[in-house]
Amino acid sequence: MKKIVSMIGVTILLCTIALSGCNEQKKPIIASFEVTPNEIEVGKTAYISWSVSEATSVTIDHGIGVVSLTGNRSITPTETTTYTLTAKSSSTEITETTSIVVHQPIEKPNITMVQSEFYIEITNTGNSRVNQFQVSFIAINKNNSENQTSALGPVINEGDGNPTILGVGDIITFRNLSNFRVGEQWDIRMIYNGDIIGQCIFKNPKPPYDTPLVRLIQSESNITIIGIINGPLEQALCSITAANSTSGANQTSVIGAMLTDNDSNPNSLGIGDHIMFSNLGAFRTGDKWIIQLLYAGDIIGQCTFTNPVHIILIPT
Fold first, then answer.
1. In Å, how far are 13, 110, 255 from 244, measured between CA atoms?
2. Which residue of 166, 209, 223, 295 lies most exposed, with the fewest beta carbons within 10 A?
């Protein structure tokens, strides 16, 4: 009996030692360690966050020091930096790194805007790449200095074929022009990263304000629709005219101008639809035409088309 009790005691002691050894050998776990955002301009603030378990201490370098197992901290690095988190247990140490890219100051964008009928057109972007989704507007009434941004409803419309970057041909329209008197004026300011990067005076024109407007550009051997204002438009009501830019002669049928669907919606005119030409091979390279897109008989878009060197014919 004593021998059995002794064996049980030894077994319990060995298990206790084994479990103690297992606890001592537990490694820290770094569940997350990141910087948000991971790119900033110098002088801007980012946030570093972390989540660690099974550790007796956690430290982060670059002056942050000892921290709790889970937390976050604002940081304002002046240069591109890699941060290292060190998590320790009684017998183990592990590390994890995360980085932030810091861009040096860049020249403030300089956007040129001009009124054209019932909208404002971007005519120059000053060689700067501006994120279109980060642009906002302020509209100040010129008569009483009242901020009427919300009442006027300015909004940017894509018009240069690049929906991410602000570009020449993009347009600012106004949702609520009909609520104001003809002739009222506003100081329109374009805001980016808290700075005014573009400004112009907009004078409320005579209605109607729902006139369709289509942006067209030449793309090699065809013309592509890159922007539509005041749509949607029925494709069946659209037609094309092509006038020779030298003689003025109507050559729509001669060059075989036709509207083709390219946005998977054959009933509605859409961005990406094309104006194609089936007989370009009959003309000299460099010949030019004034291409007009009409809707219910009215001109809603126009551009110059130059016969390219390499001709791509529409199969018949």
1. 101, 37, 10
2. 209
Task: Name the residue among 135, 160, 140, 143 with its Cα closest to residue 151.
Answer: 140
Query: Rounded to whole angstroms, how far apart are CA atoms 193 and 103?
Result: 14
How high is the pLDDT of residue 117?
A: 87
**Structural domains of the chain, ranges and CATH numbers in brackets:** 26-103 (2.60.40.10), 112-203 (2.60.40), 213-306 (2.60.40)
Question: For residue 316, which amino acid is it?
Answer: T
Q: Quick one: which H or E segment has residue 261?
A: none
Give yes or no for a contact between 301 and 233, defined as CB atoms under 8 angstroms apart.
Answer: no
Check the CA dihedral 32-33-38-40 and report its sign: positive
* Of 111, 130, 110, nearest in space to 122 by CA: 111
Using one digit for the tens of pLDDT, what is the confidence trace for 102-139? 887 667 889 999 998 899 999 998 867 788 888 999 99
Amino acid at site 14? L
